[in-house]
Each structure stands twice: as C-alpha cells, then as structure tokens.
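Predict the assembly for these two chains.
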Amino acid sequence: MFYRETGQFKTSYQADQAIFPIRQDRIFILIWLLIGFAVIPLVASEYAFRAILIPVTIMGLAALGLNILVGYCGQVSLGTGAFMAVGAYAAYNFMIRVPELNPLFCFVLGGLTATGVGILFGIPSLRIKGFYLAVATLALQFFTDWAFSRIGWFTNYTPSGSIAVQPVEVFGFAFNTPLRKYFLCLTILSIFALVAKNIVRGRIGRAWMATRDMDVAAEIIGIRPMYAKLSAFAVSSFFIGIAGALWAYIYLGSWEPLAFDINVSFSVLFMVIIGGLGSIVGGLMGAAFITLLPLMLNQLPSAMGFEISTALIKHLEIMIFGALIIFFLAVEPLGFARLWQIAKEKLRLWPFPH
Amino acid sequence: MAGDRRIGETILRLDDICLSFGGVNALSNISIDVKEHEILAIIGPNGAGKSSLLNVINGVYHPSSGSVTYKGQTRNQMRPHDAATQGIARTFQNIALFKGMSVLNNIMTGRTLKMKAGFFWQCLHLGKARNEEIEHRKKVEEIIDFLQIQSIRKTPVGRLPYGLQKRVELGRALAAEPEILLLDEPMAGMNIEEKEDMSRFILDVNDEFGTTIVLIEHDMGVVMDLSDRVVVLDYGKKIGDGTPDEVRNNQEVIDAYLGVAH
C-alpha cells in the first residue's frame, strides 16, 4: 500500500480539516490503537507492563503536557517534576481527606490543583522569556521539593515522609493487575492526546503558536499574550498534574518527594526535545525512546554475551545515553517527529526521486 | 485609479503626537488626518520616524503626549489588542509571520478576534468550534484566492521565498477585515515584477473592500503612483503633506532628500 493522497479528493473544508485528512494515516492510527488495546495485552509479559508500557504511557502524557507549553507556546519550563508532584500530592490529599470521592475524580482534582499552581507560576512568563523563565520554573521545582518533604500536612504526617497507597478502586473495580493499570493509563493517554490535538488545531492552538513564533505580531493581530501564555500553562499543567497522579498511584504505589525531583523535569524535557517540539506524536515517541533506551542499554551487553560488571553497565548506560542525546540533537534538532515527517514526504514520491 | 472610490471623512486623527526614546525625539508634534478609503503614503529618509508613527497608531508605542482619535474616540494611547478589535491591521517591515505554521494557519490567526467558540468545544473540536473553523476557513480561502496563493496554502511559511512571504503577511492582515491597513514597506527587497503584483493587490484591496491604507515606502515611483496623499517626515517632524504632485515640488522635501548647502 502506498502512502499517497492521490485520488483522495476532498469536497468540503470539514474533510480537509479532519485530524487525519489522508486515508493511510487513518488506517495507520487505527492499527496503532489496535496494537495498543488488543495485541499488546495479549502478548506482553508482566515485566513488560511494569517496566515499559505503564511508564511509557504515563510519561507520554506528561510529555504531551510539556509539549503544549514548550513546543506549542514556546515557554521553556523546568518545573515538570513540580507539576507532577502537585498533581500526585493533591490527588492523595483529596483521597484521604474526602474518602467518598471517586479516585478518578481525585486525579482530575489533582490535575486542577496543578493547573492553579501552573497559572500562578506562569505569571512570570508575561515579563520574562527563554532561559530566565526556565530559571523561574526551576524555582517552583525546588519549592515543591522542599514543601512536600518539610510540610507534614501534605504527607498526612507520615513519619518517614514517604507515602504508600492502595491500588485504585473505581466502582468496585480495582486496578490491581499490570494489565488493568495499563488499560487505564492507555485510555487516559488516548483521550488526552485527542483533546490536545483538537486544541492545537483550533483557535487556541494557533494563538499559542503565534505567541511562540512572533509575539509582537500576535499581539497586533489581537491575541492577548497573557491569555495565550497562561492558558498554555493551565492546559499543560493539567495534563502534567494528571500524569503525576497516575505516576504516583498507578506506577509507583509508594513514593517520597524525591520521586518528583529535578531529574524527572529533565527527562520529560528530553522526551519533548528528542521527540519533536510542537508535535503530539513526537512527544509520545520521545517518551517511548527515553524510557526504553536505558532498559535496552542495560540488557544489550548480556544479550550479546559480554560479561560486564553491573557497575560498569550502569556507567556505560549513562554515557551512551548522553552521547545519543547529543547525537540526535546534532543530526535532527527537530526530533523524531521531523524524521517521521520526512519519511512520509519521501514515501509520497516513492519509488520516484522527484 | 478606481472609478467610484470616494474619499470620505477623517477616520483617524493624530494630534500633536510626541514620542521620545531617552533623549532622542523620534516624533515631535506630528498631526496627521487619515481620511476614509484613501491611500496615504508616509515617506522620509531613514530614521525619520515613519515606523514609529505606525507603531503609535496601532499601540505598540505609547506617545509621551498628544492624542489619537479613531472613529470619534479620542485616547492618549492605543493598546495593540484594542487597535485590532477596532479594525486596525498591519504588516511589518521585517516579515513577522509565524514561521512554524502553514500559510493557511497564518491567515487563520488573522481571524482570531472573530472566533468565539469556547474552550470546551475546542477540546472536542465539535459543534460550535468545528462549524466556526469551517466558516472562517471559507473566508480565508477567499483571501487565498484574492492573493493567488492557492498552491502554497499548506506550506510552512518559513520555506517560502521572500516575495510570497510578504504576500502572506498581507493576507494575514486582510483576514481581520480591517478598516485601516498599515503597511510598513510592503515592497522592500522585491523585484520589479513582485512590486507590480503587490501594487495591484494594494489598489484592489482599497478598491474592492474600501479599506483605508497607510503605507510606508521608499520606492518613489510606487508612492507617487499609488497614493492619494503623501506625508513626509524628517527627523521626527512633518515637513510635507499633500497630493503627490504638491509634495514633489515642495522645497523642504527636496532639501531633506537631496541635502542642502549650509
């Protein structure tokens, strides 16, 4: 089957403005959904669920959120870990303090709390840009690290400062097996990816991109910079807050404030940059790459029959990981999403060169 | 020139505008009337304050004294958003397109102020939001047809040649259906053919939509041919104002351009 839109004539603007105007893309996304919802659950091992699939889907959601802020609206943020922490701790506090609430609703409340914090810490973006804004969001990161480990109320005064939770139960249905957890995360990710795509192809998305590309011109057209930037912060932190709550409740099960430290912020930012700034699918690819790469680097030597000490493997892993990131940024600064796009453009002409 | 195009009453009045940056007086005591449906050219040597004047009109700069009266409303300063809401659109001297977006999306942003669908519907891209997208897409396609850029509508603007980018920028300004269109050097850096195209578009916009146009241009041939009235600035002062012929024979203007023996 050729990837080609020849012969697919669109007779209405509605058809032309569909998410996937090209038929092959629609088939492709259906195949992916089929793999995600049907094939993987049949074949994947428990280890694969726990170590790969669940973290990839949750981090994919966080990367989606950060991409809205950094990739679409152009506001650099190093506070992803902080927003995830706010989402997680807020969900925890809603659950223990108002036990009648549905846990999924608590996740949403966690996301909304992160939204509030996001808007608050997005206010500096109205005056500062680029690196300076990154430093301002970094301050939030350090602040939440401090607040969640020092202020006992947030952790319900657990003596060790770490929190352990029961598996999430919704209407008597417990998400206690890896397969169920995976389904929950994948469903949430799919819904949010669709919502994100819808937002970025509409008026608000264009306002974000306009602010990113040329803020003066955007303002003169009538886009309020304050509205554009703060709405990007709000939507982004909502996504990231939900991802944080899922990360805590579904993936970790028990956690301490360090689970959301600056390293999380950096790795989500790497996912977005390597995956592709300003691309929904790019963020997901980046999340898969950054999660899988250390695992593969870890397994590769033993799979190839080398006997290497675990300490050396750990160090090699970090070195190769860093080198690969630099390599990728040098070769394709626009990330996987751009590679994917180039591949599609080539396929359109294949097998002819022009 | 257009047949039944009537120049109307004053639509925009600048009164005694002063603007200074530190010790530099970019504009001093400038008063200009812009009349409805006319094409007004602002000329002057480099650094005369032409772009600053446009920036005052659409609210990027706030004058230190003087007032702007637009459609009967007087204010000391415009805000860019207010200016846009009231129908003032512009293009920039250095192209200010949104480089990462397609031509279509760039022009669609021009219609931002006319779109009203709420956040919820946009998340779903259904109902109101989708109808609105389609409705405005129709309008944008009319502009694309008008500017003859159908073949590049899905191309990211960063990949387009300079002349086309200028055209897209005009399209984005037109999408807002402005009453006053401010064009800052719409023909800078173009070859003869592109200039002719652009001149034709400017005349057509003025003629078909009745848009009032204020343009800055250095190409005297273009200025003299297109404009109904010419305002000349030099060192932030207005030294000439009148029809192209009057300005051409104004001694002060000739001195400013050619220099004068002291």
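The longest strand of chain B covers residues 10-21. Chain B has two domains: 1-87+178-262, 98-176.
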